[in-house]
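Per reviewer request, we include the raw input and output of the structure prediction for the construct analysed in the revised manuscript.
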Amino acid sequence: MSVTVLDVKGLNCPLPILRAKKAIKDVVAGATLQVLATDPGSVKDFEAFCRQTGNELSSWGEESGVYTFNIKKG
């Protein structure tokens, strides 16, 4: 499956979610949108975003202050 990468490093809430909402529209069902963010609050934001939109937060992690979220489009 294809992966689309969205870099929102340096942006704070609500911008990472708003950009992801726009970007996921162009992702085919079953494919993954990978979001790279630096806002620590984005962890809760993306968990809530996936619950509300029916997409799956298949994995996330943090390394050197950069959070990586893999969102599988439902």
